[in-house]
Amino acid sequence: MTAVPAITTRSGLAPVWFLELELTQRCQMRCPSLCYADAGPTKGHGTMTRADWEHLIDTAPAAGITTIQFIGGEATLHPDFLRLAEHALGVGLRVQVYSNLIRVTAPLWELYSHPNVTLATSYYSDMPDEHDKITGRAGSHAQTRANIVAALERAIPLKVAVVDLGEEAQRAQEARAEMITLGLPRVGPVDRVRAVGRATGHLRKEPDIGELCGQCGDGRAAVSWDGDVRMCVLSRFLPSPGNVRTTPLGDLLDGAAWHELLARVPRRRGSDCKPSSDSNDCKPAETTCEGNALVLPVPAPRLPTEGNR
Questions:
Q1: 298 touches 67 (CB < 8 A)
Q2: C-alpha to C-alpha distance for 289 and 280, rounded to whole angstroms
Q3: How far apart, in whole angstroms, are the C-alpha atoms of residue 128 and residue 202?
Q4: What distance in Å separates the CA atoms of residue 40 and residue 66, rounded to the nearest whole number?
Q5: Residues 53, 102: contact at Cβ < 8 Å?
Q6: 198 with 40: CB under 8 angstroms?
Q7: Pick from 62, 231, 283, 307: CA 20 to 30 A from residue 250's CA?
Q8: For 14-53, what is each residue's pLDDT tens digit?
Q9: CB-based contacts of 54: which residues, under 8 Å, 6+ apart?
């Protein structure tokens, strides 16, 4: 048997501790110009069953995971969302929920108030009509903004991302200023939409490695609604190193296919990283890139620099 050559890309990359779980493609919004997941109101929940997700959550700590993020689509529309979030908390994981905050029920507010839960959302404009046009849903601005305010009133840790579609008239900077005025303790720089998923048509550009932020797989990974593992939710145009329904997560993250993917991503480090002009793409900006948005940073555990154990 021919020996597999050593993969050297682990050097300088953190072992995976943050895992994104894409529970569903269903979403109340249509976001015609920017949705990386091609989500929408008529989309399904994928082929991962509740038992599949629970098994993944159960085995995540052994693979080095300390924090999981539920995302979609709109993760809260999955019929088992609350059970899965409670299951994750029960096995000692920290939980982050990435939600459009269109509708927040009493049980959801109770979950978001848990000390080991953080919340993240996206915001596009301080003008209701412009925001609603971007999301493809009338009234979405009023609903999301009201629930941002409600989260602040409840002292729920919240990160709000502002995404610029590159349209000249979009009031993205004004939206960011509004979030600061509301009292968000951390508001990252405005991020740009990336040519992945539905945004490829808007930007008239095909997805490529250059559209990735440079942090894919560096301390993070994603599992899609069909069980495929990705470096992040934006890297779905690249091949998956495997599926968690057939191979344990820890084995996939230690495998050659995973590290070969890591080697393909240009890394922005040192003098190449300019937080004043590079959106949220680098660590000095103190943000974690999540799709088209920013998520509330949580401390990375002190893990070995080799492997995911």
A1: yes
A2: 6
A3: 21
A4: 30
A5: no
A6: no
A7: 283
A8: 899 999 999 998 998 877 666 666 767 788 899 999 999 9
A9: 84, 87
